[in-house]
Amino acid sequence: MPYDVIIIGAGVAGLYASLNLPKNLKVLILCKDQPWECNTFYAQGGIAVAKDKKDIPLHINDTLKAGAGMCDEKIVKLLSQESLEVLEDLIAKEIPFDRDKEGNLLFTKEAAHSTSRIIHAGGDCTGRVIHSHLISQISHTLWKNATVTELLIDNNHCYGVSVLTKRGNYNLYAKNIILASGGIGALFEYHTNAYTISSELHGMILENGLELQDMEMLQFHPTVFVKTPYARKMLLSEALRGEGAYIIDFWGKRFLFDYDDKGELASRDKVARSIYDYKLQLLQKYPANSQESEVYLDLSAFSKDYFQTRFPNIARNLNAFGFDLPKDKIPISPAFHYCMGGIKSDERGKVLHMDNLYAIGECACTGVHGANRLASNSLLEALVFARRATLDILGKESSLNKREFPLHTQTLHKEQDENLKTILRNLMWNKVGIIRKKSDLNEALGGIEVMLQSGVGRLLKLRLLTAKNIVESALKRSHSVGAHYMQ
Ligand code: SIN
Description:
Bound molecules: succinic acid
Structural class: alpha/beta
Strand content: 15-25%
Largest sheet: 7 strands, mixed
Number of helices: 14
CATH topology of the largest domain: FAD/NAD(P)-binding domain
Radius of gyration: 22 Å
């Protein structure tokens, strides 16, 4: 039976889209693993919103400034103006945002915001709290462990998707398809993303001759604890620095002021780049992994009680690694965090040149983030454009275009793929990372081409297509702007 809408992804964008579609529509949400394996679930800081009508121009200005001249101003205005309605709706949905004793919303600050305007929930568990509330309210069907392997596209129309589940392979057809599949974290050795976030849908877009935009614009989070055995490294929220934590070397020097007079609160790209550069200098003098070669997050501005209450998730995770907080200093590194670029889509979330395909959330590029996303604008973008996409779907006549596609038969994984994925992650981190050189980018491109020609499985091929697009976009932009820094 065909669907009215198929949504790929069960992060905040996908779930909120489904909540905006009435129960009488036949809607299916597909997610690759368990629904919580998405970037929303691990988001700590919060949701940036205009605090009131007066704050809208300031929020717009901060977003445009962070985006380094590359944002689409019209879209940024929509984002900020509609943040007030979205917030009202989330409150109506009883999301328990943190409040003071009088019941007023608590706002925190992160880098490059001119005021405290970030709402949060569960202290530093914003993503988890929102995710569990939204998922408890959905009334549509959700399939877990469902890997999308193909977009069934022909002549500007998406007929449906091929999906692999434990029960087998299916072609599913729908009047409208919404992509909400997240970004590209699994392409990098160090990243903060859920392990499912691997850019396969981006690869399918390229396969179908559709456009990705600004893919060289990758955001690296400055403060991540990377000495863990897991693929997803441990994010240490920027809200920590917003509320008083600072960054020091082994000798206690706050070296970030040598790079920018805003120190720890300079924009995310600057802080990440400065830490990366400082660590490279330390590594020339001291052996790798020695205490002297590390850069640290100092949490001594917090009392033990305040820290446990305000940042319970970070406290629990770091305690599990043996840190005594807030006394101990935490060795940190930048790590890949967010993809500003993505599937080119318009102000309705509609994919360019397609009549019934939408892309929302991190997988999309609406032009809102430009060359550098303002902290905590990502959950907001997912919410605003989920609503816009569903309003567009509900406001138009959608009919089912009938067309049968053959079931896909390609091998998804091949034996060599695990090794090649490690090589790819390494290549992307070392050659397409925080500080880029033309020669490194060309080397990465060569490596990716070789892997693409080595007969890899379908899912790795899709990752490689996305990686290739990132490198090619980086090579096309020879000058530094925002997060794209060419040496
Ligand atoms: C953080 O909590 O530092 C991350 C927030 C974001 O990515 O916007």
